[in-house]
Amino acid sequence: MSLKIAVAALAASAQLAMSYQKPAAPAEGLRLIKTSEEDPGQWVTKEEKYKMVKSKKGCTHYIDITNIQDDEVLEVLSTKTRTTVQAVDYPSNLSHVEEANKLIGGSNTDGPQKWLEHLTSYHNRHCESKTGTEAAAWLFKQVQEIASANSDITVEQFEHSDFDQPSIIARLPGKSESLVVIGAHMDSTSGAPSSKAPGADDNGSGTVVVLESLRVLAEAGFAPENTIEFHWYGGEEIGLIGSADIWAEYKSQGKNVISYVNQDMAGYQPSGTPTVITDYTDPALNKYVTLLVTEFTGKAPNSADCGYGCSDHASADANGFPAAFVFEDLPDKTSPDIHTPNDVSAILSTPLSYDTIMWDAVERHIQFAVGYLVEASYLS
Ligand SMILES: [Zn+2]
């Protein structure tokens, strides 16, 4: 990582002609959303937003930009051709495979199955519902408990002004303050804050992948060179609000982020192979992530686009940080149940368990996640 290059890239982007202006709000209490670079922004009611719940096909993805004040970020969100912030030289060979494989050997899906069963037991984890706040409080306690295996790890909640569901950040300090980050959104939806949304695949699965990777590193007493962070975001399903707040703060604090990898949907993979998402991500990081997926899962990933505002990597990307997204499968092969009451998992429930999750897919995502965190923790 060269800080000089990162600063130069930021300076270059500051010279972009700022042309995007938010349209004036026609009334109070509305939200401003964007569905593409060309979309100047539409002021809508919360109820109109709930109806736009994204699905794998058809529905429009949007980013809620109501709170975004940073002109540079607004410009990036409105510009199709943009210069990639190339801040990091990622290696073309992996150097700590043996160490990573040892740690991967300590991972399993026992915890993930138990955690996912609990996460899906809430009526929903909508960021504007009471159960969404309760689920976030449970997750915070769970992260603290898991992190307690290594007293160096700190865990904090990140509050948001728009809703009561705090995001969570666990930090394993390294010798350097450069950050290697993995994240997943914790919230779920099937529309309104009152609708049933167990959210097993979307995104209980990514949530437990990040939890298991924290458990493995914490229990092994892994001491990284770079600092590792584990993020769980609130408010993804209503326009990436939780991750937008966090990545805006990281930008304003001038944090040095080597890589962000997003985990949104990790439990449905009919092809047996994950997909590396190619849009709103960093091409050099994608190459490196492809190498990591291939090495640690034994499968060469597919690649595909997922569209404007499709998940939280877009927030890191818009704030100028190198972002990647390892998705469960090609976009047309993913779970048919997301954003419905049928996105369920209760594998431990007796006498009859029910489950839509492909646990071999979750396992692959865990293998990748642990491998990524170990390898990237040595990047310099
Ligand atoms: Zn999701």
Automatic annotation (TrEMBL):
Residue ranges of domain Peptidase M28 in the record: 168-347
Record-linked SUPFAM superfamilies: Zn-dependent exopeptidases
Database matches in InterPro entries: M28_fam (IPR045175), Peptidase_M28 (IPR007484)
EC number: 3.4.-.-
Signal peptide: 1-19
Pfam families hit by this protein: Peptidase_M28
Family to which the UniProt record says this protein belongs: Belongs to the peptidase M28 family. M28E subfamily.
Function: Extracellular aminopeptidase that allows assimilation of proteinaceous substrates.
Complex formation: Monomer.
Protein name: Peptide hydrolase
